[in-house]
Structure prediction request, 85 residues.
Amino acid sequence: MPKFDSYVICTSPRSGSTLLCKLLAATGISGKPESYFHTPSADDWAKTLDLALTDAASEQEALAEIFEAVRAKERGNTSIFGLRL
Prediction:
């Protein structure tokens, strides 16, 4: 079986996903899954992550920087990336 280094929890409101994310983070080996990308705005995502995107950056470069920041943050001190959508 291949080794995975990430996972995405797809959920709906009031489904228990907050508890699941807290339990996963508490294991110390499965990242720190949080919710991102609710609003379709790269500027909002960058603000949430305290990123200063330059006006000169292309949209693709800005998105790559945002996604890398989310991956780094949500790994915590583990090698696993978790995300809740």
Residues 6-84 form one domain. The helical segments are 17-26, 42-48, 59-75. Residues 59-75 form the longest helix (17 residues).
